[in-house]
Amino acid sequence: MAFLEINDLHVHFPIKGGILNRTIDSVKAVNGVSFQVEQGKTYGLVGESGSGKTTTGRAIIGLNEITSGQVIFEGNDLAATENKKLDVKRDVQMIFQDPYSSLNPKKRVLDIVAEPLRNYEKLSRSQEVERVADLLEKVGLSPESIFKYPHEFSGGQRQRIGIARAIALKPKLIIADEPVSALDVSVQAQVLNFMREIQKELNLTYLFISHDLGIVKHMSDRIGIMYKGRFVEEGDTEDIFSNPQHIYTKRLVAAIPDINPKNRDAQKKFREEVQLEYQKDYGRYFDEKGLAFNLRNISQTHLAALPEIGVVE
Amino acid sequence: MNDKLLEIRNLKTSFRIRDDYYAAVDDVSLNVNKNEVLAIVGESGSGKSALAFSIMGLHNRAKMEGSINFKGTNLVGLAPGKINKIRGKEMSMIFQDPLTALNPLMTIEEQIGEVIYLHNKAISNRDKKAKVIELLDQVGIPHAKYVCDQYPHELSGGMRQRVIIAIAIANSPELLIADEPTTALDVTIQAQILDLIRDLKQKMDAGIILITHDLGVVAEMADRVAVMYAGEIVEIAEVNTLFEQPRHPYTRSLLNSVPNSDEKQDKLHVIQGIVPALQNLPREGCRFKTRIPWIAESTHEDHPELHEIAPNHFVRCSCYEHFYFPDETEVENSGLS
Hints:
The structure holds 2 protein chains of 2 kinds. By secondary structure, chain A is α/β, with parallel strands linked by helices. Chain A contains 10 helices and 12 strands. Helices cover 35% and strands 24% of the residues of chain A. In chain A, a hairpin with a 5-residue loop joins strand 11 and strand 12. The longest helix of chain A has 18 residues, at 185-202. Chain B is built from 11 helices and 12 strands. In chain B, the strands form 2 sheets. Chain B has an 8-stranded mixed β-sheet with strand order 6-7-8-3-9-10-12-11, with helices on both faces. A 4-stranded antiparallel β-sheet of chain B has the order 2-1-4-5. Among the domains of chain B are: 100-170, no CATH class; 245-335, no CATH class. By secondary structure, chain B is an alpha/beta fold. Classes of the chains: A alpha/beta, B alpha/beta. Chains A and B meet through helix 6, helix 7, helix 9 and helix 10 of A and helix 7, helix 8, helix 9 and helix 10 of B. Chain B: It is found in: Cell membrane. Chain B: Its main location: membrane. Chain B: InterPro entries: AAA+_ATPase, ABC_Ni/Peptide_Import, ABC_transporter-like_ATP-bd, ABC_transporter-like_CS, Oligopep_ABC_C, P-loop_NTPase. Chain B: This is Peptide/nickel transport system ATP-binding protein. Chain B: Keywords: ATP-binding, Cell membrane, Membrane, Nucleotide-binding, Transport.
């Protein structure tokens, strides 16, 4: 049994209108997504804004209501109502995107990091301070930081406070939603290194949500590409980057800026080719409603949403 | 050289914090030529945006020294009325955030039309509208006639950024400053916008200053690159040289901290410490010194200067000659673990 298993997940947001303000339609933000994550691995979820990757992450942790489908975490279905009890969910934590807005400016670091502890564990005041100091040390901040406020820290330090809060309850799964997008490259490197270190140390599993393919490639063991609420391709990191199958994946891979200026012309040519193919064949990759097809196996580890017959290539 | 468009000499822009002035741009000299993309790279706080705003004359209360020569006019200390005649016409800027740079209460036609009208008050409404539609076509917005009457909130992020570019190029500027033009956009849209800027460079023979922290974007777009740290230029070179033979420790560290797409490294390089705040900048000696403490003190210059170590390749301070990356064990993440 997989550590985390998502089965046919749907998250729809109602659109209300008409005279009686009834639900007239819905935005299908996540429209039939299934994947599995192994323990101790990093699963990268990639897509552009509006693709539903963040909604998927938030639905797993329960921040968005699930319309239908299953989120099976260690054998428990988190979507089922009877499982909305607390102790399953303490094992799943989240790191948010923006370290400037995800920490309450009026709270001290102590209160921010101790909040999950206060929810789940009855600690005395001195035990609590000790635990928080330990956590801060683990993320490389000095224990004196306890009584400071978020504005006294730099972006990278704030993100590490966010990480300290996420690991306070020794979770098993961390959903990291664009954890480094708001940071400078050098600080990014620091946070990414650190995330890998604690992953080894605490045997954490990450669901790493990002639009930056370079970073996802660096971090992930397995990657799922989302487009308009559905998966268009899924595979091991190697599969996705060396053998992209779906036109949308190809387009994403082609759009990554190449760090070597010598490749500029080659890259430009490659991008033009993909763009031509994209314009020519876009329709063939989607059904009449504009949805991606169901994933089909290409190899043992690699799945893509290719049309049933008349496969390109 | 004949095609020199912009010549900045010893520019120093200082901001007042409490009762003192602190230089955010400190003694910067550089040139921009026609039909050239000069990229300015650095972390937040390195002064790259402050430099761009200085050129555009957008700092209201900053103290500016030195000279910015744009086609024979020194922009430093120029009367606001005169700057207004140049700004938006001969030089213009693409702002970073397409969500906030547009006025939510004006239609697209009004926003683009405004900048055309301000520099050509005699234009008729019909000509103005035709020009707006032409610009929208030029930046690749489909159904230009229809988009004209729309408001910013009706457009996607990529479309809004195109509108901002349309405003910037409305009067065919000779100098275009793009401040993180694609940071807020998705990669596929980023690729389109960069293509667009590249086309415009060729069509209009314009000089472009591209400000970014994304080294991938630099590698794709730039002809020359200036690396800024703590208000100073620490290295400036042709793009190939900079990526193949980076010399300054800061440049080398930056390049090393990007996940390399070709090989799977376990650990990324981390630059120790943080960019110091404006008030705490070390003004004496090498400013990067505190972030490479394993390099001997004696290798730094007392008053670091830019040295031309190869034609058109300038590096500040002599510490680059002795710089090396510490072993994994030595750096061990600056106290992170």
